[in-house]
Design a protein that fits this description.
With 285 residues, this protein is an alpha/beta fold. The chain binds flavin-adenine dinucleotide (FAD). The site of flavin-adenine dinucleotide has 33 residues, from helix 1, strand 8, helix 3, strand 10 and helix 4.
């Protein structure tokens, strides 16, 4: 707080209270489109030329980060670890309303499992000053482990708050947060200190479409690339060498054989009765 007092007949006192604001990092992964045909070819997983998109769960994380910024002030910084193509995912986050974006990309990162990915993400987050909150999607639709947020939180030494369906309160000045976690049994309210790491579920919000202004900003914004050296990780700590998991064999599921049979009858009641008999015979009901 700054005070300025003028002397003389009148005395004026000006108080400038420094508003607390939030620095929010949102981690996004570029994944194949949900409609992509994922196949195993020559022992490798491939989705051919299918379009790449922002992992659908991560759109909810970006939206929530922007809403928090709109409410409390501060900025949203999007980070993605991946190949050059992941720049497009970052552009979408900027077009939605993120302020800055960084791509963590380096040939030595190829083959990273969650152990290595979280190491690199935590190092990248550590490069940014004064981070209050890191948002993740619940899971990536390709890797599907749902572990990256927790592993990154562990490496940062910050509280992990997973399956968050609502940020009930956040007090940047008091450095506290209260969230509702969506569990199978119901909702659980959890409070934590900031900084914290959150993974969000789709119930948290409705992601906005990128605005025209946002798309223009994204097309002009330079997205810096951080190499492994830039974030301070050595080749042996990431990629296949820094991973704990190996994929010794990948095989496609055997094709399912399905038989289609039309149930016919003179009336809807007869069709329903025949269908019920067949389901009972197959022990489905
Ligand atoms: C041996 C091995 C080799 C692999 N090789 C490769 C490879 O060469 N290339 C490759 O792309 N994947 C590779 N993978 C998969 C990759 O390691 C995982 O996709 C990654 O660790 C994240 O795990 P996940 O996809 O299960 O994400 P989840 O844990 O399900 O994702 C949760 C959230 O974490 C965030 N997140 C996840 N990944 C990223 C990311 N990269 N950048 C920013 N945020 C992220 C998102 O917010 C996401 O919603 C490999 C895995 C193994 C085990």
């Amino acid at each position: 707080m700054l005070n300025a007092v003028a002397t003389g007949q009148a005395a004026f006192s000006f108080s400038f209270i420094e508003e607390a604001h939030l620095n929010i990092v949102v981690c996004i992964k570029q994944t194949p489109d949900t409609a992509a045909k994922v196949e195993v070819k020559d022992g490798h997983v491939t989705w051919g030329d299918s379009p790449l998109v922002v992992n659908p769960w991560d759109e909810f994380a970006v939206e929530e980060a922007i809403r928090l910024k709109e409410k409390h002030g501060g900025k949203v910084i999007a980070i993605s670890l991946g190949p050059e193509t992941a720049r497009e995912a970052l552009k979408q986050a900027v077009a939605m309303g993120s302020d800055e974006a960084y791509l963590v990309s380096d040939p030595v990162l190829k083959g990273s499992d969650v152990l290595a990915t979280s190491r690199a993400l935590a190092k990248a987050i550590g490069k940014i000053d004064g981070v209050d909150l890191v948002l993740f999607g619940k899971q990536a639709i390709d890797g599907d482990t749902g572990q990256t947020a927790i592993a990154t939180a562990r490496r940062l030494g910050w509280s992990p708050l997973t399956y968050v369906a609502k940020i009930a309160e956040i007090d940047p000045a008091a450095r506290t947060i209260k969230v509702e976690r969506l569990l199978e049994e119901g909702r659980q309210t959890v409070t934590s200190k900031l900084p914290a790491v959150i993974s969000v579920v789709k119930e948290i919000n409705e992601p906005r479409y990128p605005s025209f202004m946002g798309i223009r900003k994204a097309s002009k914004l330079a997205i810096p690339i951080w190499s492994a050296a830039d974030i301070g990780v050595e080749a042996g700590q990431v990629g296949l060498a820094g991973s704990g998991v190996a994929w010794p064999e990948i095989m496609p599921l055997p094709a399912r054989e399905a038989v289609c049979e039309f149930v016919e009858g003179a009336s809807p009641a007869e069709v329903a009765a025949k269908l019920a008999d067949k389901l009972a015979a197959e022990k489905v009901v």
